[in-house]
Structure formats: C-alpha cells, structure tokens
Amino acid sequence: MANQHQVKAKKHLGQHFLEDESIAQDIANSLSLEGYKDVLEIGPGMGVLTKYLLKKDTTTHVIEIDTESVDYLKNNYLNLADRIIEKDFLKYDLNLVFKDKPFAIIGNFPYNISSQILFKTLELRHQIPEFSGMFQKEVALRICSKEGSKVYGILSVLTQAFYNADYLFTVPPTVFNPPPKVDSGVLLLKRKENYTLPCDEKLFFRVVKTGFQQRRKTLRNSLKTFNLSDNLKANTIFGQRPEQLSVSQFIELTSLIENDIN
Ligand code: SAH
Question: How far apart are CA 66 and CA 45, in angstroms?
C-alpha cells in the first residue's frame, strides 16, 4: 500500500498515470520472458506496471527521470531500490547497467519521446529481444503498417526489418489520470530470428530515411544525393515511391546501391 501521497502529474514530463489495474497487468504479461533475465521499464511513475513485473521470474530495472516518482518508488517498492535508475532514458548509456546482456524493454512512457525510444531500441537491437510499449494509437498503427498504406513510413520499415510488430490492444483516455487527448495502443515487438540484414545496415537506415523524406517522389528523385549511376537508376525499382516498397525490397534496394557506390 502507498505510504506517501500520490505523485502530482507534470505536463512537461508527459505524465498520464494509468489507473486500470487489469490493463497494467495485461501490458506486464505481454512479454514472453524467454531467452533473457532482465527487463527495463521506462518511465514507471508510481509503479502501476512495475508491481506486476516484480511478481515475475525476472530482474526488473526501472529508469525514471522524475525525482518525485523515484522517491515514491523507493518508499513503496523496497525490493526495487537498487534497480532504480534516476536518468533520462534517451541520454543514458544502458550498458552501464546491462553490460552486454540481453534485456527487454517495457513501458507506458510519454508520447512525445516514443519515436526516439523506438529509435534507441533499434540501435540496441542486438541486446533487445522484446519490447512492449504504449504509444499514441495512431503511431502504434503506423509502426505495424505494411507497404501501400498511407501511414507506412520510416518507423514501419526500420522496425519491421528487425522485429515482428504486433498491435495488441487499444487503451481509451479514460483510464489515465489526467486523461490524454487521444487513444493509446499497446505494441509488442519480437525480434526476428534472423535480424542481421544481408546488406550494409548503416546504409539501409540512410536509404530508408532519405527515401521517405519526399514520400510523393520516385526513389530515383529522392535518392539523388547518393550519386547513383544511370545504369542503376534505370532499374524499375527506382520508378517506385518509397511507400510502395516492402521491407525486403528496401533491403534489396540497399544492396543494389551498395554495389553501385563501391
Ligand atoms: N508508467 C506509469 C507512468 C506513465 S507517465 C504509468 O503507466 O502510470 C510517463 C512516465 O515517464 C512519467 O513517470 C515520467 O516522469 C517518465 N518520463 C518522462 N520522460 C522520461 C525520460 N526521458 N526518461 C525516463 N522517464 C521519463
């Protein structure tokens, strides 16, 4: 039971506290816990998810930027005390804690940093087999979307190159305090068995990001900065727009570019 007053929600930290216990439990239960021992929760707040994670056969670590929330957690979850990292997730070097060990990421974290959280996860993909997170519904759907969809973009391609993305369920604003303005969606990412790409991975990120910078243009136009040979640009793939290419076609495109510029 709480032995301290509740944390006052701070807007600049994107604090919307989840108050529905069964949703909290469903999110905590979404991780398979297979093949790793450690879990990192981002933005635990008052620990609504944390308490369910602590019941599991896993080592739960939390990273929280808000001192008031950290104090609350220290007072209410005594066995968590030495696994609370009071830092900004986006700036913290996670290998100070995890060394090279695998760990899963979970959290109901602020909408305004959710894409950056995902990008950091993708950078650390070699260590992160699973990720379960609450996003703005629209962003969660975008991440899972397939080629041909209007919302298919950079985050969809980069995420799905390495992870299978599953939209689990929608969460209405009413279960948060204070309620956000939009629906939320919980997304589960499971790393693919074979997540090493058969092309230069850095170049793949550049091709996808540059390709989508002008999504209405053909790749021939939007990839001009790569100074590709006329011969390569005659390939029909360059006549397509980025939103028409599947993840595997983006990989194929990267291999073609890699051969051309080397
Ligand atoms: N998970 C809790 C809190 C959600 S509010 C719940 O579901 O009730 C989002 C939480 O993320 C807040 O506690 C906020 O302080 C924290 N937070 C915001 N920015 C952060 C950052 N950069 N790094 C770590 N935590 C952050």
Answer: 8
Co-location of 256 and 186 in the same domain: no
pLDDT greater than 70 at residue 3: no
237 burial (CB, 10 Å; 0-12 / 13-18 / 19+) is middle
**Alpha carbon distance 23, 176 (integer Å):** 11
**Do 24 and 103 have their domain in common?**
yes
Domain count, the chain: 2
Q: Is the pTM of this model over 0.85?
A: yes
**pLDDT tens digit string along 170-219?**
999 999 999 999 999 999 999 999 999 999 999 999 999 999 999 999 99
Same-domain pairing of 32 and 85? yes
Is residue 143 domain-resident? yes
**Angstrom distance (rounded) from CA 241 to CA 124:** 29
Instruction: Render pLDDT for 92-121 as a digit per residue (tens, 0 to 9).
Output: 999 999 999 999 999 999 999 999 999 999
Q: Which of 13, 77, 121, 132 to mutate to test the pocket of ligand 1 (most atoms within 8 A of CB)?
A: 13
Q: Are residues 237 and 167 in the same domain?
A: no
114/210 same-domain check: no
Around ligand 1, the residues with Cβ closer than 6 Å are 13-18, 42-45, 48-49, 63-66, 69, 88-90, 107-110, 113
